[in-house]
Design a protein that fits this description.
homodimer, 444 residues, alpha+beta, Rossmann fold, nine-stranded mixed β-sheet, 17 strands, elongated
Chain lengths: 444, 444
Amino acid sequence: MKFNTSPISGTQELLPAEQSVFDRLKTQIANTYKRYGFLNIETPIIERTEILLAKAGGDTEKQIYFLTKTAETSKTAETNKTAETKDLPDQALRFDHTVPLARYVVEHNQSLSFPFHASQINRNYRGERPQRGRFRELYQCDIDVIGRDHLPLAYDAKVIACIHDALQTFNLPPLTIRISNRKILASFLETLNLSEKLPEISSIIDHAEKVSPEKTQHALESLTLSPAQVEQITTFMHIKGAYETVEQNLKNLLNDQFENLKTGLSELKTVFDLLNKKPNISNIEIDFMIIRGLDYYTGTVFETFLNDHRAIGSIASGGRYDNLASNFSSQKFPGVGGSIGLTRLFFVLNDEKLLNTEATFPIDYVLLPLSENEYATALLLADKLRASNHSVDIDFTTKKLGDRFNRAAKISQNAIVIGESEASSHSFEIKNLQTGTTTPLILD
Amino acid sequence: MKFNTSPISGTQELLPAEQSVFDRLKTQIANTYKRYGFLNIETPIIERTEILLAKAGGDTEKQIYFLTKTAETSKTAETNKTAETKDLPDQALRFDHTVPLARYVVEHNQSLSFPFHASQINRNYRGERPQRGRFRELYQCDIDVIGRDHLPLAYDAKVIACIHDALQTFNLPPLTIRISNRKILASFLETLNLSEKLPEISSIIDHAEKVSPEKTQHALESLTLSPAQVEQITTFMHIKGAYETVEQNLKNLLNDQFENLKTGLSELKTVFDLLNKKPNISNIEIDFMIIRGLDYYTGTVFETFLNDHRAIGSIASGGRYDNLASNFSSQKFPGVGGSIGLTRLFFVLNDEKLLNTEATFPIDYVLLPLSENEYATALLLADKLRASNHSVDIDFTTKKLGDRFNRAAKISQNAIVIGESEASSHSFEIKNLQTGTTTPLILD
């Protein structure tokens, strides 16, 4: 029979040259996270269903990949299932890093020192309907700072600064980090006596950039708001800029009632001011259009956009949550986190030709022994070059020399031919496979 | 309700300090593979069931984790299932790197240059009954060289040499790489007119080290062999050492019929001689007890044992297969591969106290600003230190200084207190958290 050998749709399978670019970006993120003091952890990709669904609603369940085994019997099934999970398989693939992190912190909290700085760079799984640029298997590069009982606001700035520096290593075109604080919108709507419509209005603001202004206005009107309220909300969501600008705009909008917003504004000012003390940062903007869809954020929220490629959407985002582990523990673990969605970012950067895809050759030297008599010399030379951290390929094929040069040129810039005279003299020449010129090899 | 926050049994979840040792070993393996010219690739963890079961027998199916979604309908199911897979879910988790590699090579063969050198360092999934030291989620670090139509024997030596060098970076106690060639046993049994019992006898030899000699003898006798045949096989399986020793022993055992074994012996000699030309290798031994359980090996096979910890079993193994992709393609892709089972190796090394677990501190400097007035100075200093590739933690908590020093000492050897005078003078002292001594910080 004929097999379909393409990778499953919604997964990203790269050729070796693309993979090496991807791996380089991943390493750059990991190194930045490490320099900021985040400790790498790895949680299993497989989790208990009841842990994954502890908080989530029905939509999450629809996206989860459950695990089954053909030999599964009721004997191996766990029996303490909750009502919501009792008809589902016991185990499933995690859909993000946050739920496993919450479980990890609760499970190991006696062994961790707080504020705990965790980084997680790994794949998550979402059973979304596959479409261009949406992945079912995706790398996410997360950092989180988890406090015990209390976590200062300075950590919000730290997470954003670290994500900023990680992205800086990519040499991307200009980008803007847009930050806000969810408490401000909540207090604003309270002031307008619209608290009970917070979820709907949040969702409308969150989508406002993806649709026309008319559609947003219509969506607000359909909530049975007064024309004045629609106008106030529309004005609010377009407030952005430096802190002083934002504060002045809010004062103009709210007059005396401005004071109601002070908790959120004071948090936002603290984070914004700290970020502006960082020497190499100039692309942070307060922007009330930033909401973040996920409902567990409680304060600071941020998203990151390439200025000339806004349609790509946010390439890195995150925020503050008051209690990471509220579902699993009575202890309080406030946290703040951020994430770079690397699989999707790689896809769009590649698609928009924004990646440095300069031909990079993975192999430093290809050795071409002319016959088996020169294998010993080739092995010795390879060992020496590898000891100096060079990557070395020995071509042991017996094809024509021209074919062997062609293969070498695909993976390296340098070939070293080893014939009788090189084997006896132990002196070698490096042939540049682009120019054809040769230079003597100098060994340490 | 109370949740079980432990990781699922059969997974390895590490604390940050253990994780950093694990990550170090993984990086050392990756760097060695790279120096040998292997190109990293990453295949999806999720695969089509029909690909995973194309060759495997019923035992594999029992170990596979299948994926289901609650919203799954027959519309999304693929319809070209084979008879064997039609009652199973369409997608599953891969159980090794070899099957996905075969699919990858067939799918992308037009874009690859052969001999293709692939490395894969990632997790695989096996639904085994969990037991101490056996994992359901496990890192395997594979290298494979895949030829097109033909692949010289020198690549067998290359794979073994590379695995050897990767293990050398671990500073393990003395180990021995034991190699054999499956063609020798096959020819030997043909000579004894026992070819049809090759599978049973292979299995008995493969298990011989794990049971008593009497049990092995009894197992052979139960195959209705003559006492002479049992004795010849027993003698054969104990042959080991350098090539000349092995050859002499076989001559003694077989007299004139020795010539029947020449293909396998010539291959073995080629690989063994090449390995012995490598400067830093001295722990290779031919050993006919080495068979490898997996039936796809067709020539060279090898396993690696710690001399003083044989009970751990093989820590790295592999071999030659004549046709990687026979199930998916009519093209011939002969290959040779090797694998280090890192999750299990880490577990046993840790268990046997063979890991270098010297207290390593993940953070180079912990900065302790005494109040918010010093945050700007701390951020500046952190940026400078990070630019020199140091990992820096800024402690923004407002706890007592003693508590902050205690936290710092858990993650670092060095603290830098930043008070009013440091903020104004911009000169800093490093406090060694073990000894309490201070030295001035010299910035570039």
